[in-house]
Design goal:
With 304 residues, the protein is an alpha+beta fold. It has 2 domains: 186 residues, Dbl homology (DH) domain (Dbl Homology Domain, Chain A); 82 residues, PH-domain like, CATH 2.30.29.30. It has 8 helices and 7 strands; from the N terminus they run H-H-H-H-H-H-H-H-E-E-E-E-E-E-E. Strand 1 and strand 2 form a beta hairpin. The protein starts with a helix and ends with a strand.
Length: 304
């Protein structure tokens, strides 16, 4: 008898889950535990740094090792009497929100590993020592840390495949479809969290370059475009270098600072986008010029 397709996929889910729990064990019980032990001696890195690198990996490991993997294993052993996994995955889905924190922290964690490997040779040596072990399979700590980031999309793919292969009258159809929907929502939640985090980080960098002016720092703003521009002075027919930041609600007309201590630019003028008009000029002497007129004033500018 050939195994039904859906059982093969369910078995693949179990096998990859076992391998995944081994990887989580390596991250939590080996890397995290040993680096933490060394950090406590005060010779490698501060304990806080180790905690920041590994985020909530311990909770993720415990959930998979103590709950999801045993449930899945039990279900596969009983497959002939009860051929279904949809309900088990429904129990798993809400807990996958834990990944939001880990995934958001991932880039920062990798930066910390790099920075502290340069700063602290004992830290670098300990990581290199663990990486040499057979269990690491010649892969770096960063490589192993990527695994939880990729796990939710993997569940989604396997489950999609499983639902596709289920016979129409399968007792698992309803549960499996609901489970897929739940996993899809969690994946979306995790991606949205990352996108929002990146947007705020980029915004904060821009605010720092502008000297953190009170009336400009607002987390709801969106940066649309920025870049250098020439300001045309009609009085003496000359141009001078300026810089523009266009947000969803305002245009900042800035002057690059000569001595860049702290802020990179000084805001000379803030124009509201509401009611602002832009008109192209046909000027033979100054090509690519345009007028920006707002409630505050009008600027004659030249693009590169």
């Amino acid at each position: 008898m050939q195994e039904p397709e859906e059982k093969k996929i369910a078995l693949e889910l179990l096998e990859t889950e076992q391998a995944y729990v081994n990887r989580l064990h390596l991250l939590d019980q080996v890397f995290y535990t040993e680096l933490m032990k060394e950090a406590k001696t005060g010779k490698t890195v501060p304990e806080e740094v180790v905690k920041m690198i590994f985020s909530n990996i311990s909770s993720i490991y415990q959930f998979h090792a103590e709950f999801f993997l045993p449930e899945l294993r039990k279900r596969m052993e009983d497959w002939n009497h009860n051929p279904r996994i949809g309900d088990v995955i429904q129990k798993l889905a809400p807990f996958l929100k834990m990944y939001g924190e880990y995934v958001k922290n991932f880039d920062k964690a990798v930066e910390l590993i790099t920075a502290w490997s340069e700063k602290s040779p004992p830290f670098q040596e300990l990581i290199a020592d663990i990486q040499k072990r057979k269990v690491c399979a010649n892969l770096t700590l960063q490589h192993h840390m990527l695994e939880p980031v990729q796990r939710i999309p993997r569940y989604e793919l396997l489950l999609k495949d499983y639902v596709r292969k289920l016979p129409p009258q399968s007792p698992d159809r309803g549960d499996a479809e609901k489970a897929l929907e739940m996993i899809f929502m969690v994946a979306k939640h995790s991606n949205a969290a990352i996108a929002e985090m990146e947007r705020l980080q980029n915004l904060w960098v821009v605010y720092q370059r502008l000297g953190l002016e009170d009336d400009i720092v607002d987390p709801s703003n969106e940066l649309i475009k920025e870049g250098p521009i020439q300001k045309i002075s009609t009085r003496n027919n000359s141009t001078s270098e300026k810089y523009l930041f266009l947000f969803n609600n305002m245009l900042l007309y800035c002057v690059p600072k000569v001595i860049q201590v702290g802020a990179e630019f000084q805001v000379h003028l803030r124009m509201d986008v509401e009611g602002m008009k832009v008109r192209e000029l046909k000027d033979t002497e100054f090509p690519h010029t345009f007028l920006v007129s707002g409630k505050q004033r009008t600027l004659e500018l030249q693009a590169r």
